[in-house]
Design a protein that fits this description.
Blueprint: H1 12-25, H2 29-41, H3 47-61, H4 72-78
Helix pairs in contact: 1-4
Length: 88
């Protein structure tokens, strides 16, 4: 398999959150970026299904998406819904 590099500039606070996440999960930056890109390009669920699911969850619970402090890093770093983000 051939590998290519990606270089990007991101907000310093987001970078710090990603670094914390990497340390906590023992992932490399390459693994993290690969997973994030793969999840974005090849979602496990169709985006429309995710919107409908969020709408249904909001309607049932009367809650919006709220990240707890424990899951905030995952939510911000991954920029994707997480079951741990739904709390009240």
């Amino acid at each position: 398999m051939e590998y290519k590099g990606i270089t990007v500039k991101i907000d310093a606070d987001l970078h710090a959150e990603v670094r914390q996440y990497l340390e906590a999960t023992n992932m490399t930056m390459a693994e993290f970026v690969t997973q994030a890109l793969d999840d974005e390009l090849h979602p496990k669920f169709q985006k429309e299904d995710m919107k409908m699911e969020k709408h249904e969850n909001d309607r049932i619970s009367g809650a919006g998406r709220i990240c707890s402090s424990a899951s905030r890093t995952t939510c911000a770093a991954m920029r994707s819904p997480s079951a741990s983000c739904w709390s009240r």
